[in-house]
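Priority: low. Protein: MarR family winged helix-turn-helix transcriptional regulator. Input follows.
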Amino acid sequence: MADPEAHRIDLPECPSAQGGGLLPKELRAWMVMLAAMGSVEQELRTVVKERLDVSHDEFLILCLLAEQPRAGLRMTRIAELLGRPKTRLTYQIACLQHAGLVTRSSVCGDKRGIEVALTDKARRLLAEASDTLAATVTGALSHVMGPDQHEAMSGLLPDVAGRPEEP
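Result:
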């Protein structure tokens, strides 16, 4: 199992997290979120390549599909959710299909529609790697998200930040 700590990169603190600048709290929180996402992506890239042998963008597709019913998602919806051009997505799906991780099928009643779904192989690999991937995300976030950053993030969703957790 890959050690998430082996890929840790010391990142400087996000200047927007400190406050006191010109930005309103919502934009300051967004900057903190971007810094956190960058940290997670940097650390995940290596772990994803080692554990799943796919690119980070291909991993994002697998994650989207993993949260769907076995039927899968239409390629146009995947492109929307990831904010990716459809032409780039077509290439990534082809790579995933070649690796045996996804299947493509025509959508019934729509000759142009293509639906993509995870294979059992992909489900197994994701299940085997999930603990390592989760630890990598948690480690990356804890590396950049201290109390000041948490407070800045609560500025983005003040109603959610104060809500007690649901049972």
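The helical segments are 25-52, 56-66, 75-82, 86-98, 120-144, 147-154, 158-161. The beta strands are 73-74, 102-107, 110-118.
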